[in-house]
Design goal:
The protein is α+β, with helices and mostly antiparallel strands. It is 33% helix and 26% strand. It is globular.
Length: 111
């Protein structure tokens, strides 16, 4: 399994507006071909301090080929254009291969 990991810095627009527009973004993302699952998490303060990042999104695909195809789809292009309309410069994307966990048939590991 492969995933696209998107890390976000804190937005400069009001949080309610970001959440509304991000909800619209997720509607577009849900139409991307080959997408298996989406997880979005917001970072919270920990005992060692406030996080440098605001939020992360993980978009799961069966394999690298499916991820590459999704990134070149019209649906992903529309989602990317919409995201840049309100969060340009606030996000960084990475590819990651899932090497442990339920998706790979392995065991979950506590950290």
């Amino acid at each position: 399994m492969f995933k696209l990991v998107v890390l976000y810095r804190k937005p400069e627009i009001p949080l309610a507006e970001f959440d509304r527009r991000y909800g619209e973004h997720l509607e577009l993302v849900s139409r991307v071909p080959g997408l298996r699952r989406v997880e979005v998490a917001r970072f919270v303060e920990a005992p060692w301090g406030a996080p440098d990042l605001f939020q992360l999104a993980e978009l799961y695909f069966d394999d690298r080929k499916a991820l590459d195809a999704a990134l070149h789809s019209p649906e992903m292009a529309a989602a990317g254009q919409q995201l840049r309309s309100f969060a340009k410069g606030l996000f960084t994307m990475y590819y990651a291969e899932v090497t442990a966990g339920e998706e790979r048939g392995g065991e979950e590991h506590d950290v």
